[in-house]
Design goal:
One of its GO terms (molecular function) is hydrolase activity, hydrolyzing N-glycosyl compounds. It is an enzyme of class 3 (hydrolase). The protein is of the alpha/beta class. Helix content is 42%, strand content 16%. Helix 1 runs parallel beside helix 2.
Length: 188
């Protein structure tokens, strides 16, 4: 595992802990020898993770759709910038470049990117590690929803730990490193 894609918000959130912990995650990733693959934004959680990686001497690969690049939100600090034609191409390129996936706090776009990786893992498109950085308990409602889907029979119980919530950066990277594929979904 060399490159980790991080899905996260272009907003900072209301509590400064999100930006602080995102920065520390980026710094820790670089210190541990991992490269960042991300949405190339210079702001919010996205910018904080990038800054942590780069401040620690790491490598950050940003993937940005041309339409958003024209709005001048693209980071000018990235180690590498990949411009693509659409959001779909952005997700595909990030998936192609990454060996593992993290979701950090963000909004609808972060959830959409995360759930694509989650469902793709279930149906066998990839078997790469996925984990969730649960800063300040942010993703506990999401875990409750997934647990409810398991209870109601919409997600197989074997996927309970497909994308575990991790409260620290150390636990997060350890979880990715120790990932064991859970197998492809069966239909009955």
């Amino acid at each position: 595992m060399k490159r980790i894609a991080v899905y996260c918000g272009a907003s900072k959130g209301r509590n400064e802990i999100y930006v602080k912990e995102a920065y520390q995650l980026g710094k820790y990733m670089a210190e541990q020898g991992y490269e960042l693959v991300f949405g190339a934004g210079s702001v919010g959680i996205m910018g904080a993770i990038q800054d942590g990686v780069l401040d620690a001497g790491g490598h950050a690969i940003g993937v940005m759709p041309k339409m958003l690049d024209e709005k001048e939100i693209t980071s000018q600090k990235v180690s590498e910038l990949v411009l693509v034609d659409s959001m779909h191409e952005r997700k595909n390129k990030m998936t192609e470049l990454a060996d593992a996936f993290i979701m950090a706090p963000g909004g609808a776009g972060s959830l959409e990117e995360f759930f694509e990786m989650y469902s793709w893992s279930q149906i066998g498109i990839h078997q790469k590690p996925i984990a969730v950085f649960n800063i300040n308990g942010f993703f506990e409602p999401l875990q409750n929803m997934l647990d409810g889907m398991i209870t109601e029979g919409f997600i197989d119980a074997k996927y309970k730990n497909l994308a575990p919530l991790c409260d620290t950066k150390e636990e997060l990277l350890e979880t990715l490193e120790n990932y064991q594929p859970l197998g492809v979904r069966t239909y009955d």
